[in-house]
Fold:
Amino acid sequence: MTGPTGHGAPGGIALTGSTGQLGSRIARLLADAGVPQRLLVRDASRAPSLPGATVAVAAYGEHSALLDALDGIDTLMLLSATESADRVSLHKATVDAAVAAGVQRIVYTSFAGAAPDATFTFARDHWHTEQHIRGTGVDFTFLRDNLYLDFVPGFVGEDGTIRGPAGDGRVAAVARDDVAASAFAVLTSDGHSGATYDLTGPSAFTLAEAAAVLAAAWDRPVRYEPETLDEAYRSRESYGAPAWEVAGWVTSYAAIASGELSTVSAAVADLTGRPARSLEQLVGAG
Structure:
């Protein structure tokens, strides 16, 4: 068995983001199934301790460190980096290093409706990353996640109100557990070359409907109050975040209003063999 920072056998799987909410779930599923993996982290002390996992220190965009970390790796599970002004360039540099290291396949967590003109500004980052991966000629699979269902309870303010410019649009939000299970299926089975999977929940709901589900689960009033785009920008600018981050917050709701996040897919069930989780199931209301 290799040491805690040793490299595993050639032909294995490397995973970025294992210290985060989604990556840690994928890493655990691989470990539970006895699949060897290499965890790429910025800080080795924060890497999860899992059977069959080795650790390599390399951050997004660090070419030399990534070349070493990905030596002998066949498949890179590339979880998108934390939102930042230079996220696309970090993604591109990481992909280039992976290809240079001899990685044969990249499985990338993208976003629903990724396009150069997507309403949700961060979805544009994902489109540019997808295009770069395609351009390298490496084998790929894209997992286009909808908004995370896990985020929805956090939309509720201290006064029991969800506020945002989502109008009466619908969102087919997907649970992180279902994204992780789908990623595990893609990583450990054949037939996904060049595929793009839209990962969604079992239905699309309005934020007013979400408020009703949360109210029932929590046994207290929860309501949705639509905002205009101007109101949304003004309320969120008070946090002092950079403009690109505020735009991301606001346009996530605007993408719901536009209908860009309303399409329901059967991909989770097709990949995992079980239905996607609903908001009711997530919060124990059904």
Notes: Residues 31 and 51 are 6 Å apart (CA to CA). Residues 121-136 form the longest helix (16 residues). The longest strand covers residues 105-111. Confidence is low (pLDDT under 50) at residues 1-10.
